[in-house]
Every structure is written in structure tokens, then in C-alpha cells.
Specification:
DUF2140; transmembrane; membrane; alpha+beta; transmembrane helix; elongated; 4 helices; DUF2140 family protein
């Protein structure tokens, strides 16, 4: 093989690698657009039970809320082969920490959310910031990835278009021995109040 053939072969190799990279980039871009723009079903919040003589107020601090959340998450993830994630309540945000695959590489992300009590006593997490290493991925893409790939309970609803996560506490506790609904969320003071109601026999 002469020098000209070697140069031509090397050029063709680089050319092929270039087009493979272009295809991967286009594929990733299409995946981002699909996850961010996928149709979203807007859930109807489960109505809160009426307060009664059997209702009482439960006040938890930041440490207790984190312990409860992590205990529950570990339990549902124990037998799951899907990506693992964590949920941490801090002084400013409630943060979801996990991994997402981008361009074939697993990257760690931290998504900061502001928790808000809804009129029905559920909790709505409004995504406000996202850190993904040095990448600049849209929040909608990461939320769409979480929705599609993570093991989530049926009372958690993700709306990647509105950048919100609804924690439907009323649905979660509907058929349990006690009902729980959010009454007050105070991140700065680390105080979280819940209304606990024991269903009355009719």
C-alpha cells in the first residue's frame, strides 16, 4: 500500500468517525426534544378527607422528614433494577439527586425544588434549578428521563412541561389506617406540619 492509499484510508476512517459522532449528537438531541415535549397527563388531585374529632396535628423537623423519605425510597428501590435516586430536604430546597444517561454516559444531577402545599393538602415540588456536572441540560429533559426510567410510586406525578412533581399524599394514605395531608411547609425553620386523620366507621 502506497502513501496515498494510507492517507486516503486514514481520511475515510476519520470521516466515518465524524459522521458517527454527528448521528449520536442528533440522536441525543432528538431524545431530549422527545422527553421534554412528550404528552403529559394532568392528574386530578385526590381530595383531602374532612378534618374531624379524630384529627390531630403532627409536627416533624427536617431530620425526621429526611429519615421518613429515605426509608420509603430505599424500600421501593430495594428490588428495582432501575436507576437509584435520593431525596433530601434542606434549608432552601427539596433536592432530587440521581443519575441520567446522556450521550451514552451516566452523569449525576441535582435538581432543586421548592415544595408548596396545595389546596388539597398535597405537596407540589416546583423545580427551580438543575446542576449536571458541566453540562447544561434542560430541566424538562431530566424530569422526562426520571419519569420514564425511575421506579416511582403511583402517587407521584411528574409534569416535565410545567416542571413540577406532585406528591399526592391523599392518594397514598387513602386506604391506610390513617390519612395524612400537608398543613404547613417551612424549609427555613425546618418545620413541617401534617394533619393526621383516623377514618371513622360509619
Amino acid at each position: 500500500m502506497n502513501m496515498e492509499d494510507k492517507i486516503k484510508k486514514q481520511y475515510n476512517g476519520w470521516k466515518a468517525a465524524f459522521w458517527v459522532l454527528v448521528i449520536v449528537l442528533i440522536g441525543s438531541l432528538l431524545a431530549i426534544m422527545h422527553l421534554a415535549s412528550a404528552p403529559v397527563k394532568t392528574p386530578t388531585e385526590t381530595a383531602a378527607p374532612k378534618a374531624s374529632d379524630t384529627s390531630l396535628e403532627l409536627v416533624l423537623n427536617q431530620k425526621q422528614v429526611n429519615a421518613l423519605a429515605n426509608s420509603y425510597i430505599k424500600r421501593i428501590q430495594k428490588k428495582s433494577k432501575k436507576p437509584q435516586y435520593r431525596f433530601i430536604v434542606g434549608n432552601q430546597y427539596a433536592t432530587v439527586i440521581g443519575h441520567a444517561k446522556f450521550l451514552g454516559v451516566n452523569v449525576q444531577y441535582s435538581m432543586n425544588c421548592i415544595p408548596v402545599k396545595t389546596s388539597e393538602g398535597n405537596i407540589l415540588l416546583k423545580a427551580k434549578g438543575l446542576a449536571v456536572g458541566r453540562l447544561n441540560l434542560p430541566i424538562g429533559f431530566v424530569m422526562g428521563y426520571i419519569k420514564k426510567n425511575y421506579q416511582l410510586p403511583d402517587w407521584v406525578y411528574i409534569n416535565q412541561k410545567k416542571k413540577t412533581i406532585l406528591l399526592d399524599l391523599n392518594k397514598y394514605t387513602k386506604n391506610k389506617a390513617v390519612h395524612a395531608q400537608a398543613d404547613e411547609i417551612n424549609l427555613a425553620d425546618g418545620q413541617f406540619k401534617f394533619l393526621i386523620t383516623v377514618p371513622q366507621d360509619n
